[in-house]
Amino acid sequence: MLIESIVRKTLGLKRHRVKEVKEEDGSLSVHLVPDGRFKVICSVCESKGPGYDTLRERQWKHVPLWGIPVVLVYAPRRVHCARCGIKVESIPGTKGKSPLSVPLSIVLASWAKEVAWQVVGRFFGFHWNTVRKAVKDVVDYGLRHREIGNVLLIGIDEISRRKGHVYHTQVYDLISKRLLCSGKDRTSETLETFCDEMGEEHCEQIEAVCCDMWAPYVDVIKARLPNAILVFDKFHIVRHLMDAVDKVRREEARELKAENPEVLKKTRYVWLKNPWNLTDKQKVRLSYLEKLNLKINRAYLLKEAFRRFWDYTYPAWAKKYLDQWFWWATHSRLQPMWEFAWMIRRHQNDILNYFKVRIDNGAVEGLNNKAKSISHRAFGYIVPQKPSTLLSITEWGNFQCHN
Ligand SMILES: [Zn+2]
Q: For the chain, percent helix, then strand, then coil, each to nearest 5?
């Protein structure tokens, strides 16, 4: 196959052809010319029109071949468009003023999802700033082509970075499992921005929202998503419960420090893990500890009893069980469990909504970790989750970034 054919195929040339490929200063310069048999296409509205004039030659960086830089060279024409007036023509494989070809942007941004920008740059022989531009081009494209019409269930989650010093709020579409919006900080602002961008009509369409019992969100949800049922996320609730159990363990370990410092050492996961995930050694340890009439054992039993709550089908039965559990927890004489029980009671209605709309943020957990590793490298740009191929820029889209 000739280089001409590769270029023609990867750019999808129809109304242009490759005039020649020259080796200039160690790179391959691909000179494109218009195919005179066709009319000129307006880059704004994609309609055909007569040519107006020809502009100066421009260059675009293209995907390197066998490590050899490739440059596209073309003198764009202007079109006399009936709708838009005099505009630059649509040039295959390029977008707007970007000095990078679209396939190159996709290749670089795809790699930028996996490794650091500097590494991508070194590997392809570009400055890291070129990689940054590629990511920006692709993100901007995604923003413009974001489909938000059919978002019905959303999940809101926070990811922490730099050991919890920086938080990002993420809004996910729970049906298609894609990231819709990402903003710095754990404030209501991100959610407000999301609602502004969705528009009132789409906001009204949203049927349910899943999130943590975090007050600023709750207010925004009630104000801006009038038809959404609020469901407190199961995984967040369980995390709060685990924190309470662990607090009981730490307090008791402190109390026992003088008389029996060894007894609770390294038992954190014995109490927190699901019983069926314990190792044999942990099982032996647990059955020994269970006989000691420890406070942490009471907390452990409460934690295990809470598990049954999620198994109910009908809200009324779930509520009955929750009332029962509340009584146990508030009579356990364990302060952290008492606090957790009251937190649950305060948010009870929205917790019980889980039995009306069974959604949780479990499915987005994986996306969260991915977003974490990406945003760590991408200075706040969130790159879409979908893999892409060289030619299909339509794969990209449906995500958002704020800096
Ligand atoms: Zn036009």
A: 45, 20, 30
Helix (H) or strand (E) holding 134: helix 128-144
Digit-coded pLDDT (tens) for 362-402: 877 666 655 554 443 333 333 333 332 222 233 333 333 32
44 CA distance to ligand 1 centroid (A)?
5
Token readout for 273 is: 């893990």
- Please tell me the predicted confidence (pLDDT) of residue 9: 84
Q: Where are the alpha helices (DSSP H) in 230-334?
A: 234-255, 268-272, 280-289, 295-306, 315-330
In the chain, count of helices (H) and strands (E)? Answer: 15, 14
Tokens of 112: 């930028």
Query: How far, in Å, from the CA of 315 to the mean position of ligand 1?
Result: 57
Distance 91 CA to ligand 1 centre (A): 14
pLDDT of residue 386: 36
Q: Which two tokens stand for residue 7?
A: 């270029």
Answer whether 271's CB lies under 8 Å from 282's CB.
no
The Cα 7–Cα 104 span in angstroms is 12
Is pLDDT of 51 > 70?
yes
Mean pLDDT within 331-351: 95
14: DSSP letter:
S
- 128-158 burial by CB neighbour count: b if 16+ within 10 A, else e? eebbbbbbbbbbebbeeebebeebebbbbbb
pLDDT, tens digit, for every residue of 143-166? Answer: 676 666 788 899 988 877 666 667
Taking 90 as the threshold, does the pLDDT of residue 310 lie above it? yes
What is this structure's pTM? Answer: 0.65
Contact call for residues 15 and 36 (beta carbons, < 8 A): no
Contact 189, 183 (CB under 8 A): yes
51 CA to centre of ligand 1 in angstroms: 12
Three-class SS of 172-189: EECCCCEEEEEEECCCHH
At residue 99, the 3 state secondary structure works out as coil
